[in-house]
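Reminder to self: tokens first, then the designed residues, so the page reads top to bottom the way the pipeline ran.
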């Protein structure tokens, strides 16, 4: 027994093959590369086709049973800055509690024109300082909801969602 113990202590263990290490390392590298590609695709690397698909799905979907999402046009207006060289470009969607009222924005030219007029009036009355902060954007959002409800003649607009917001 003592001889067996000495034999084990005195013996050198045979060297392990590095082949197994290379296989494991290669597999880990392939997994990491695949994960990187997957994250890139999920984070917006899908291109314009994927974004267009998402936009189409969002326009068709209903947020809940009692809410309707309607895409509004893109609005471009000069800001009321003293120099007069700044403008705002905003694309929005509206969330409505009444689908029939919301669809009037799309189907009724008079309502559509009133909404457009009110939005351009509100946007062109703002300065860069009014819309550049998060608080200013939220204030603008509330004001646009009020104006949209006035144009529809009913309190059916729940919220305005900014899809694109550019100030230059």
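Designed residues (168 positions):
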């Amino acid at each position: 027994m003592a001889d067996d113990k000495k034999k084990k202590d005195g013996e050198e263990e045979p060297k392990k093959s590095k082949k197994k290490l290379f296989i494991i390392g290669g597999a880990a590298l392939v997994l990491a590369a695949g994960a990187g590609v997957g994250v890139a695709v999920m984070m917006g690397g899908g291109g314009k086709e994927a974004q267009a698909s998402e936009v189409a799905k969002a326009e068709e979907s209903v947020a809940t049973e009692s809410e309707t999402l309607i895409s509004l046009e893109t609005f471009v207006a000069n800001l009321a800055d003293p120099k007069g060289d700044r403008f705002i470009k905003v694309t929005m969607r509206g969330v409505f509690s009444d689908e029939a009222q919301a669809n009037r924005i799309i189907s009724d030219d008079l309502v559509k024109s009133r909404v457009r007029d009110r939005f351009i009036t509100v946007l062109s009355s703002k300065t860069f300082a009014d819309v550049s902060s998060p608080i200013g954007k939220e204030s603008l959002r509330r004001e646009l909801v009020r104006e949209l409800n006035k144009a529809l003649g009913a309190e059916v607009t729940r919220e305005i969602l900014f899809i694109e917001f550019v100030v230059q």
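The chain has seven helices and three strands.
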